[in-house]
Design brief:
The complex is a heterodimer of chains A (105) and B (212). Chain A is α+β, with helices and mostly antiparallel strands and 105 residues long. Chain A is 61% helix and 13% strand. Chain A has a single domain, classed as Winged helix-like DNA-binding domain superfamily/Winged helix DNA-binding domain (Arc Repressor Mutant, subunit A, Orthogonal Bundle), CATH 1.10.10.10. Chain A is built from five helices and three strands. Chain B has one domain. Chain B contains seven helices and no strands. Chain B is globular. Classes of the chains: A alpha+beta (105), B mainly alpha (212). Chains A and B meet through helix 5 of A and helix 1, helix 2, helix 5 and helix 6 of B.
Amino acid sequence: MSKINAEARMVTTYRPHMKIIGDILSTTRDDLHSDGGASVTYLIRKANVSHTRISKILSNLVSQGLLEQVNSEGTFRYKISSNGREFLVAYQTFSRFAENFGLVI
Amino acid sequence: MEFILENILNLIGFIVGLTIGILSYIGFKNTGSPTLFRLGIAFLSISVGFFVVWAGYMAEDFVLQKGHIEKWVQTLGIGIQTIGYFFIAFSHSIKSFFPKSRYLRSVGMLPLFLVSAVHIEHILRSVSFILLAYGAIETILSYFEGKKKGTIFVALGLSFLAFGEFLGWYSFVFPESILYYVSISIKIAGLISLFIPISKIPLTKIKFDSEF
């Protein structure tokens, strides 16, 4: 019973927009072993976001220069840019800062 | 004795508030997070509030020499601090604090009318106490979710500030007693506790915006 409750809580836990962006950027920085970039499907699975939502977020991140869009064999793949790396370091540091106050950024 | 303790408290409050406020604002400029913006407003207000009271004591001691701080200056400083405490509580979604039933809301408003005859400083102190207590409880609850050691220090800091505020308010009932000094000492301990986790953040790794 308690396991079910814990799982239900995990599913219903609210994840702020900033956290989703952090997850996407971390995935593109840490989880890729080749220079080809991450596919949308891979990012959907890793960041656990719907296709509609991730499409908007990805185009936003590309327009802000945090991600680079690469056209590889007819599909778009995404790589983290140097600005994206800097943003991610700042995000992770200030995320820890806010956690000290019991807050999520 | 009162002058020295008040000066120590207000200077520590000013420095701690300013440091956390600036860090939060830098965080907001780097990430665009509204939470950090609210936290920045909160601690910058607290910092300004402590500074106003400190300036009041300084003006009294070196210029006016009346033997007591101007009441309106102290009230103004405490008022600005209360705004800061409100934003800390607001960051924890203050909506959940207020009871949903109309009856409880109306009863909850009663103390405001009961104390309306009392000086505005008393009201501000009691409001500060409620906001700080709420912030402390929410921070403790966050600790149980994240188990982060720094959160305990912040929760402890807010609890000490709340308790210090309560004793400070209570010392109006027993003026000239030790309660006032205990209140200031507890508040100083609270501010130091708030600063401990912030001092451990490795900010040197971050490349700040060109403005900073």
